[in-house]
C-alpha cells in the first residue's frame, strides 16, 4: 500500500538521473565518443546510393513569404485595387486633387502593410536555425562530423550529452542515456533510454516513455552517451509526419475584409444612384447639363466610401505594429480581428504558464523540518539544511544538462558559502554509479583530500530509503511527506551521504553505508504575471484551458496556483476512451487536461470549434503545429518554439509569456473597438457632406461644395479615421465585456442607427446655420464660408463624440491623444488660412466672416457635441450588444 501511495512521486522523481548500474563507471563526459567502436558503419558508395533514393535529411521548406510576394499579395487585395482604381478614374476625369489624395492614402496603406509584414517575416527568419545540427557518425570505421542534412538511413550516430539528435534512430549501445523529447511530446522532463534488446518484442515507435530504445530527430541528449542506427530521416521521421499533416488543415479567412467589401459595394451603389439622380435633377431643373455632370461628380465624391478600405487596411497594419510592441508578432491579419472574439484560450503549462526551468522550492529534513529557499532572505541557508543541499550538489553532474541537476547548481550558487563552492569547483568526481531499472538512484564519489571519500546519492525517494536501510516506521513517516509534496505538484528526490575508505570500489551502491539527509522538492515555478492574466481572462469572459503532457497531480497544482478551476482534470487515457459526443460534453466543464498526446490536442481544438467556441491555442513543439493551424488563433512561442510551430501559427510570442497573450487580446479588443468608432464616424460624417452637396441642388440654391471642398474634407476624415481613432486608448470596460460574436457584423443595426443619428443631427444644425445666413441675405461667398465652417466644426464635434463609447466627454478630453491634437491643430490652421490668406480664400471661393458668424458656427458644433453626449448613454448598451 505504501508503494502504491508513493508511486506517482517516485515516477516523477526517477527522471532525475538515469543509466545502468551493471558496472560502476568513471565520469568521462569530456570524451566525445566514450563508447568503444566495433562497428564500421556505411561506406561512401552506400551513402550516395541512399541519398539518391531517400534524398537529404531535411523537411520540405515552407512556402516563405518574401518581400516581393508580400507586395504582390497586397496589390492583389480587392480593397486596395478599388482605391487605386478610383484614383485613376478621378485623374481621368481631371480631378487631380481627389486623385492624388486617394492614391497617396492608398500608397501609405500599402507601405505600412509591406513594412510591417516584411519586418515580421524577417524576425521569424532570424528565429530559424541558420544551419542544420551537426552529426557525429561512423562511416568506414571512422568517426566523421557531418551536416545533419547528410545523414542517411543506416548511419551509425555517436551521441553524447548536449547533442541534438539529427534523425530518428534506434539505440544499439547506451550508457545512462536520457533525452529531452519536449519538442515532440510537450513534456519537459527527460526520459530514460535503454539499448535495443533483440530478444524482446518491438516496442511502439512513439516519443515519450521510459526504457525505450528509440531516439527521435530534434530531441536533445541531456545525459549519457550511446550509438544509434538511423531508421528514418526527413519527412519520414516523427517531425516530418507532423509537418505533412499541416497541409490537410485550412486557416480561417478574415471576416472583416468580406464585410468591408460588402459595405463598399452598398455605399458605392448608393453614391452612384444619388449621383445619377443629381445629374437628372440639375439638368431638368436648371438646364445646364455640363454643370449637372460636374455636380453629380461632386456628390459622388462626397459619398464614395473610399475611407472604409483605407481604415481597415491601416488599422490591421498599425494594429500588428502596436501588438508587436507588446512582444507579439502578428503573421496573419485575421488573427487581430479574432482576438476580440476568442472565447477559449488553450494553453500549454511548461514555459507558458511556468518559467520552463526546474527550481528547488522545498527542502525537508528527516526530523520533519521544512524550508522553502525562495522565502529565505539571507544569503545562506540555515545550518541544518546545508548538508542536504551540499550532498545534492555532489550527486549532480559537474557540468549539468539535466534540468534538475541545473536546479541544484543554481540554488547552491545562491545559498551555499563561497568557501564550499570554491572547494567543490576545484574537484571532479572520482567514481560514479548510474541508475538502473531496479534502483532509481545515482551516486558520485569525491576525493576530499582526506583518508575517506564522500559519496553523495540522489534519486527516487524509495530507492534512497532502500540504500539507507530505513526501518518501516521511518519509511511510513517519509511516505506521508512525499505524498504531501506530490499533491503540491512537486517532483521529489531523496538525498543521502556516505563515506568510503580504500581504493577497491564496490560493485553496487548498496555496499555503501548511506545516511538519509532529507527530501528535495522541485517544480517549474509559475510565472509571476499569470494569476493576474488569468483573472483578466475570466473578467473578459474568456475561459482558460490548460493542456499539458505532464502528470495530473502537477497539472492540477499549477492550475490552482494560476487561478484555474481544477476540479475536473481529464487524462489522456480517459480522453482516448471518449467518443466525440462524450468529449464535447466533458469539455464544457473540464479546464485541465493532463498526459495529452499531440493528436489529442488537435482533437480537443476541433471539438471546441464544433461546439461554437472561438479557440486560441498556444504551442511550441512540432507536435503542436497541427492544433495551432486548426485553431482560430494559433499562438507559437518565439523563444523556445520550433520553426514548424511558428510557421503554422498566426501569432508568435517573442517572450513566451502567457501575460503577453492577454495583452494581445486586450489590444485586439481595443483595435476592434476603435475600428467600429472610425466606421461609425465615416457613416455619420458622409451624411452632412452629401446633404450640403445635394440640398442646394434640390432647392434651387447656388451650389455650395465643389471638388476642392470635398478634397479638403477628405484631408480631415482620412487622417482622423486612420490615425487619430487608431491611436485611441482602450475603453475602461474592454476586459470586462464578454467576447463578441464572431458572426456579428462590423456595422450592427445599433451602430448604423448611431451613425445615422449623428449625421442627421449634424446636417440639421449645419442646415440651420445655412438657413440663418440665407435669411440674413448673406452674399454667396460668405454663405458658403459660413456653412463650410459650421460643417467642419461639426465634424470636429463628431470626432470628440466618437472617441469613446463608454466614457463621458469630460473623461475623454482628459485622456491624452497626441495624434488627435496634431490633426485638430492642422484643421484650425487650415481654416484660418482659408479665410486670411487671399490665395486660399479665392481657391475656396470664401467671403469674409465676422465674429458673430464664427460664434454661430461654433455654437452649432457645440450643440451637436452636447446633444449627442446626452444621447450616447442611452445608446451605449445597444452599440455593445449583438445585432
Automatic annotation (TrEMBL):
Matches recorded under Pfam families: Cation_ATPase_C, Cation_ATPase_N, E1-E2_ATPase, Hydrolase
Top-level division of the source organism's lineage: Bacteria
Topology with respect to the bilayer: Multi-pass membrane protein
InterPro entries referenced in this protein's UniProt entry, alphabetically: ATPase_P-typ_cation-transptr_C, ATPase_P-typ_cation-transptr_N, ATPase_P-typ_cyto_dom_N, ATPase_P-typ_P_site, ATPase_P-typ_TM_dom_sf, ATPase_P-typ_transduc_dom_A_sf, ATPase_P-type_domA, HAD-like_sf
Lineage: Bacteria, Pseudomonadati, Pseudomonadota, Alphaproteobacteria, Hyphomicrobiales
Alphabetized UniProt keyword annotations: ATP-binding, Membrane, Nucleotide-binding, Translocase, Transmembrane, Transmembrane helix
Single GO MF annotation: ATP binding
Annotated localization: Membrane
Identification of the protein by name: ATPase, P-type (Transporting), HAD superfamily, subfamily IC
Domain Cation-transporting P-type ATPase N-terminal, first and last residues per copy: 26-95
Amino acid at each position: 500500500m505504501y508503494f502504491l501511495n508513493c508511486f506517482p512521486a517516485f515516477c516523477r522523481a526517477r527522471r532525475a538521473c538515469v543509466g545502468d548500474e551493471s558496472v560502476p563507471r568513471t565520469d568521462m563526459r569530456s570524451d566525445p565518443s566514450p563508447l568503444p567502436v566495433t562497428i564500421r558503419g556505411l561506406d561512401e558508395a552506400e551513402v550516395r546510393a541512399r541519398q539518391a533514393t531517400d534524398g537529404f535529411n531535411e523537411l520540405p521548406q515552407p512556402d516563405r513569404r518574401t518581400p516581393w510576394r508580400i507586395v504582390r499579395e497586397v496589390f492583389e487585395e480587392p480593397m486596395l485595387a478599388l482605391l487605386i482604381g478610383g484614383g485613376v478614374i478621378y485623374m481621368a476625369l481631371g480631378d487631380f486633387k481627389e486623385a492624388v489624395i486617394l492614391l497617396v492614402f492608398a500608397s501609405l496603406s500599402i507601405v505600412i502593410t509591406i513594412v510591417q509584414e516584411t519586418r515580421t517575416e524577417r524576425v521569424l527568419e532570424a528565429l530559424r536555425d541558420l544551419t542544420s545540427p551537426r552529426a557525429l557518425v561512423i562511416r568506414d570505421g571512422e568517426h566523421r562530423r557531418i551536416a545533419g542534412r547528410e545523414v542517411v538511413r543506416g548511419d551509425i550516430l555517436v551521441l553524447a550529452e548536449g547533442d541534438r539528435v539529427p534523425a530518428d534512430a534506434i539505440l544499439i549501445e547506451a550508457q545512462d542515456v536520457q533525452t529531452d523529447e519536449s519538442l515532440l511530446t510537450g513534456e519537459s522532463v527527460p526520459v530514460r533510454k535503454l539499448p535495443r534488446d533483440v530478444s524482446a518484442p518491438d516496442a511502439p515507435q512513439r516519443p515519450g516513455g521510459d526504457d525505450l530504445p528509440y531516439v527521435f530527430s530534434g530531441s536533445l541528449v541531456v545525459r549519457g552517451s550511446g550509438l544509434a542506427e538511423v531508421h528514418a530521416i526527413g519527412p519520414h521521421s516523427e517531425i516530418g509526419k507532423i509537418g505533412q499533416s499541416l497541409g490537410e488543415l485550412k486557416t480561417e479567412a478574415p471576416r472583416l475584409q468580406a464585410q468591408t467589401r460588402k459595405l463598399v459595394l452598398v455605399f458605392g451603389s448608393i453614391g452612384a444612384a444619388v449621383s445619377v439622380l443629381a445629374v437628372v435633377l440639375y439638368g431638368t431643373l436648371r438646364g445646364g447639363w455640363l454643370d449637372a455632370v460636374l455636380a453629380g461628380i461632386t456628390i459622388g465624391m462626397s459619398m464614395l466610401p473610399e475611407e472604409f478600405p483605407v481604415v481597415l487596411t491601416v488599422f490591421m497594419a498599425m494594429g500588428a505594429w502596436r501588438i508587436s510592441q507588446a512582444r507579439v508578432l502578428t503573421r496573419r491579419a485575421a488573427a487581430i480581428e479574432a482576438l476580440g472574439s476568442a472565447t477559449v484560450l488553450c494553453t500549454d503549462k511548461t514555459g507558458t504558464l511556468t518559467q520552463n526551468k526546474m527550481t528547488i522550492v522545498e527542502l525537508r529534513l528527516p526530523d520533519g523540518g521544512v524550508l522553502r529557499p525562495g522565502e529565505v532572505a539571507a544569503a545562506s541557508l540555515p545550518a541544518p539544511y546545508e548538508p542536504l543541499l551540499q550532498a545534492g550538489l555532489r550527486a549532480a553532474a559537474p557540468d549539468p544538462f539535466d534540468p534538475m541537476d541545473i536546479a541544484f547548481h543554481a540554488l547552491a550558487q545562491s545559498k551555499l558559502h563561497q568557501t564550499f563552492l570554491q572547494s567543490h569547483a576545484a574537484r571532479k568526481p572520482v567514481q560514479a554509479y548510474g541508475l538502473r531499472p531496479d534502483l532509481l538512484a545515482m551516486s558520485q564519489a569525491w576525493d576530499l583530500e582526506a583518508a575517506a571519500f564522500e559519496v553523495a546519492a540522489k534519486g527516487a525517494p524509495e530507492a534512497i530509503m532502500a540504500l539507507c536501510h530505513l526501518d518501516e516506521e521511518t519509511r511510513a513517516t517519509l511516505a506521508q511527506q512525499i505524498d504531501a509534496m506530490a499533491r503540491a505538484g512537486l517532483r521529489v528526490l531523496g538525498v543521502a551521504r556516505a563515506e568510503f575508505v580504500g581504493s577497491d570500489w564496490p560493485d553496487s551502491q548498496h555496499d555503501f553505508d548511506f545516511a538519509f539527509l532529507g527530501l528535495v522538492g522541485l517544480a517549474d515555478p509559475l510565472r509571476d504575471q499569470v494569476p493576474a492574466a488569468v483573472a483578466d481572462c475570466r473578467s473578459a469572459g474568456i475561459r482558460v484551458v490548460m493542456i499539458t503532457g505532464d502528470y495530473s497531480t502537477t497539472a492540477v497544482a499549477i492550475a490552482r496556483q494560476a487561478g484555474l478551476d481544477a476540479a475536473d482534470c481529464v487524462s489522456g487515457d480517459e480522453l482516448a476512451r471518449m467518443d466525440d459526443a462524450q468529449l464535447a460534453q466533458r469539455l464544457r466543464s473540464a479546464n485541465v487536461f493532463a498526459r495529452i498526446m499531440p493528436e489529442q490536442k488537435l482533437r480537443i481544438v476541433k471539438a471546441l470549434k464544433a461546439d461554437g467556441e472561438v479557440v486560441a491555442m498556444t504551442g511550441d513543439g512540432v507536435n503542436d503545429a497541427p492544433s495551432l493551424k486548426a485553431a482560430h488563433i494559433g499562438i507559437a512561442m518565439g523563444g523556445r518554439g520550433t520553426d514548424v510551430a511558428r510557421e503554422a501559427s498566426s501569432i508568435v510570442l517573442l517572450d513566451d509569456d502567457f501575460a503577453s497573450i492577454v495583452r494581445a487580446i486586450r489590444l485586439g479588443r481595443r483595435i476592434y473597438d476603435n475600428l467600429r468608432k472610425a466606421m461609425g464616424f465615416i457613416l455619420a460624417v458622409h451624411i452632412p457632406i452629401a446633404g450640403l452637396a445635394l440640398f442646394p441642388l434640390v432647392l434651387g440654391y447656388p451650389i455650395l461644395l465643389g471638388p476642392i471642398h470635398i478634397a479638403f474634407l477628405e484631408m480631415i476624415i482620412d487622417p482622423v479615421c486612420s490615425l487619430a481613432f487608431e491611436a485611441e486608448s482602450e475603453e475602461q470596460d474592454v476586459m470586462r465585456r464578454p467576447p463578441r460574436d464572431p458572426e456579428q457584423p462590423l456595422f450592427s443595426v445599433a451602430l448604423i442607427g448611431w451613425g445615422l443619428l449623428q449625421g442627421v443631427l449634424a446636417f440639421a444644425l449645419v442646415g440651420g446655420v445655412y438657413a440663418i445666413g440665407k435669411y440674413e441675405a448673406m452674399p454667396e461667398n460668405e454663405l458658403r464660408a459660413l456653412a463650410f465652417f459650421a460643417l467642419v466644426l461639426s465634424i470636429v464635434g463628431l470626432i470628440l463624440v466618437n472617441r469613446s463609447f463608454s466614457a463621458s466627454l469630460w473623461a475623454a478630453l482628459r485622456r491624452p491623444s497626441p495624434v488627435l491634437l496634431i490633426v485638430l491643430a492642422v484643421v484650425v490652421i487650415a481654416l484660418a488660412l482659408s479665410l486670411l490668406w487671399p490665395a486660399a480664400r479665392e481657391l475656396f471661393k470664401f467671403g469674409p466672416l465676422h465674429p458673430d458668424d464664427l460664434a454661430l458656427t461654433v455654437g452649432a458644433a457645440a450643440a451637436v457635441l452636447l446633444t449627442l453626449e446626452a444621447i450616447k448613454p442611452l445608446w451605449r448598451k445597444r452599440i455593445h450588444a449583438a445585432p
